[in-house]
Amino acid sequence: MQPHDPNRLILGENGGVMTALLPEVEGKVDLIYADPPFLSGKAYAARIGRKEDSRRPSEWNTIEGYCDTWSDGAEYLAMLYPRLKLMHRLLAPTGTLYLHLDWHASAYARVMLDEIFGPRRLLNEIIWTYHGPSPMRTAFKRKHDTILVYTKTTRYTFNADAVRVAYAPQTVKTFGSSPKAGFGKVPDLERGKVPEDWWYFPVIARLHRERTGYPTQKPEALIERMLAASSHAGDLVMDPFCGSGTIPAVASRMDRRWIACDIHPLAVQTSYRRLLLAETPSPFTLWQTDGQEESASFEPRVSVEAMGRQVKLKLNSVSGAVETPSPFPGNIVLWEADWDSSGSVFRSRSQAVRAWRSEHIDLEMEHEFPMGGDRLISVRAVDAVGNSGVANFPIHLKD
């Protein structure tokens, strides 16, 4: 990784990634949002089908998303503890950690965070509440997650005015008719209030515009509140379990720098695709750690047509791509070109990306070079399960 890359999406094991980042950003990360596995004992599937009936989950076309199964709780905590230690080292003195869990492991994680940060550094235990169907009939339905908020020091960032919300209409009505209702304290009704430590945000609905199909995706509004409260424009935020890419998507829109990583190719390629589909994409780099290189058996097959300095590419097929109910190009989610490739580092200059739940993807792209000569064009493709590969095409252009 090169220093000073503004935004980085990394495919790799996050313990190794965070360790590798220490020489560059130790003590410099302003906010870390960590959404690790929950110790749920479940295997989560990702949807890759299109135009399916959202009311019939049994008919969805899915693939393995990620597995949250462990031999026991000790194995899970042995995974989590050293990563929390690394997060503490990476945080700036004014930095804040938001650790997102649920009833399975939040109590154990709080004990570990008390040891690492100190019990007095617990800023909040936030309860995120939501609705949704549940088959439970023998207990109250579990419809909340727990977000443990710890600060590195007492000099933490908290932008109260950035997260204020309107008072309830009944509260406004009460104080409008009786200013003494607040026991002598009259709130600034126009300014609004700082939210309580329980937050209601709906989960991502099956047909919501944010929906990527990745399991356990979090709503952007939830992340927006955290970033608004605990960071400023230009600050560096990190997500070591980036999943569907909500942190990089929101951070880009809110003018924060970011580093995000995940060990699962599907997660990283979902995040990558999401960033490319943004209304105003921000520059970022995609890194792949050792052992996570492109597959040699996965190769885009492309026709290259040169007319003077004008070049047209056509994606004909991709060898090694996953088989899906929709044949090629239905199994491809994006492909891209580096028009002046070094042969070692891929720099994406043109992209064709399938929108979520869309059948269409462009199979042709064109480029005009400023002058003739020998060129190396690299083409990269990604399939529905996150597999990717690059093919190189040397050409000679005539002026």
Word description of this protein:
The chain folds into 2 domains: 7-288, Rossmann fold (3-Layer(aba) Sandwich), CATH 3.40.50.150; 299-393, Immunoglobulin-like, CATH 2.60.40.10. It is built from 7 helices and 18 strands. It has helices at residues 14-25, 73-90, 106-117, 169-177, 220-230, 246-253, 265-276; strands at 7-11, 29-34, 42-47, 62-68, 91-101, 122-129, 144-151, 198-200, 236-239, 257-262, 285-288, 299-307, 310-319, 332-338, 350-353, 364-368, 373-383, 388-397. The chain is an alpha/beta fold and 399 residues long. Strand 17 (373-383) and strand 18 (388-397) form a beta hairpin. It is 21% helix and 31% strand.
Topology:
Elements: E1 7-11, H1 14-25, E2 29-34, E3 42-47, E4 62-68, H2 73-90, E5 91-101, H3 106-117, E6 122-129, E7 144-151, H4 169-177, E8 198-200, H5 220-230, E9 236-239, H6 246-253, E10 257-262, H7 265-276, E11 285-288, E12 299-307, E13 310-319, E14 332-338, E15 350-353, E16 364-368, E17 373-383, E18 388-397
Helix pairs in contact: 1-2, 2-3, 5-6
